[in-house]
Amino acid sequence: MTKRRTSTTTKAATTMSGTDPVLSPRALNRATLARQLLLRRSPLSVPEAVMHLVGLQAQEVKPPYYALAARLDGFTPEALSEPLGDRSLVRMVTMRSTIHLHTAADGLTLRPLVQPAREREIGYFRKGLVGVDLDRLATLARDLVEDEPRTMKQLREALSAEWPDADPQSLAVAARCRLPLVQITPRGQWGRSAQVSLTTIEHWLGRPAEPAASADDTVLRYLAAFGPASVKDLQTWAGLTRMRPVFERLRPRLATFRDENGVELFDLPDAPRPDPDTPAPPRLLPEFDNLLLSHADRTRVIPPANRGRTWQANTFYCPLLVDGFLAGVWRIIGDALVIEPFTDLSRAERTEVTEEAERVLGVLHAQESYDVRFGTVIA
Fold first, then answer.
1. What is the separation, in whole angstroms, between the first and last Cα of the chain?
2. Please, which residues have CB within 8 angstroms of residue 345's CB and are 6 or more apart in sequence?
3. Radius of gyration of the chain (CA)
4. To the nearest 10°, the Cα dihedral for 347, 351, 353, 356?
5. pLDDT tens digits for range 354-373
6. Helices first, then strands: H and E counts in the chain
């Protein structure tokens, strides 16, 4: 079987006789940044961008806003709050058992695709679920949240009344794993405060359940947003296993490469793979941005020396990209946006980072007054 090849002739790939082209970490970095709308801001609308990116990590309220401010030209908080309010976007558990922001259509189809992973998750809580009929639990929990949205506390209490000997937290987790629960608004809308209240996506949208997204189509969409990538990369992103047969089925339609460790990478033949020397402007990303979490090998964004430096104990910091790679962290403290680089930045880099920080503040905090400061360089 003949593998499709790209016509790439730039420094993005070097070819050894009889092998796939080899992509350096820098070449992978620029390709991924291009797919992630981080080389230059995109004119896409918020729903279009969320669909292209196959969702945004949204464990907390603010991260999707910072993620889109880094990626979209002309973004405003209202551009995300409004589609959440009209239910064209939803926040729900999908990939990696974390809350993601999705289009309504993706919420209906991606959740059943990753359901096997949610079933495995229930197994971690089996000691607290002895004697619990999980099918009955799912039916009861659905009735409860569709009767009226419930908090997790309310769900625990109602399910514990039915199974008093079971662990309340395990009961609620099992319900969350079995059912496609969405966090209803105003939770998730900019400038509004609300506790997490849950109902099913079908009830929230007034639409019936849909079949799971095609594994083939999802792999192609992942590559469009995160490629070039290996089978393990896709599995890390989705929380799924045994995806090799899907890639093999798609192989005739894909281009293949190798990284510098010899790992096979797949990609869409016509997807952007910019020259590694393409400029990459500084970007301020939110904590848990999918750029940093969606590959098994994260060296395309995180230099080995900086691995694990975006968190300390239970505190997670927002990553700063300089020249496309993780180069520091940032946070808002009091009246300042404080940037803490891992190494000394050049004068030109400090100027560019400051301009980017001021732009983000102007987009998301236009009614407030913040200074941009550089903190002590983290050793």
1. 51
2. 322, 327, 353
3. 22
4. -170
5. 999 999 999 999 888 899 99
6. 14, 16
pLDDT digits (tens, 9 = 90+) for 23-57: 999 999 999 999 999 999 999 999 999 999 999 99
309 has pLDDT over 90: no
199-218: b (≥16 Cβ within 10 Å) or e: bbbbbbbeeeeeebbebeeb
Q: What is the three-class DSSP state of 28?
A: helix
SS3 state at 345? coil
Angle in degrees, CA 266, 272, 278, rounded to 5: 120
Residue 4 has pLDDT above 90, yes or no: no
Length of the chain as a residue count: 379
H-type helices in 54-166, by residue range? 63-69, 77-85, 104-113, 115-123, 134-147, 152-162
Pick from 357, 234, 271: which is nearest to 32 by CA?
271
- Look at residue 273 and give its three-state secondary structure: coil
pLDDT band at 156 (very low <50, low <70, confident <90, very high): very high
> In the chain, which ranges are E strands?
13-15, 21-23, 56-57, 89-93, 99-103, 181-183, 198-200, 255-259, 264-267, 283-284, 311-312, 315-316, 318-322, 325-333, 336-341, 371-374
**Which H or E run includes 221?**
helix 215-226
Phi and psi, residue 373, nearest 5°: -130, 155
13-15 vs 318-322, strand pairing mode: unpaired
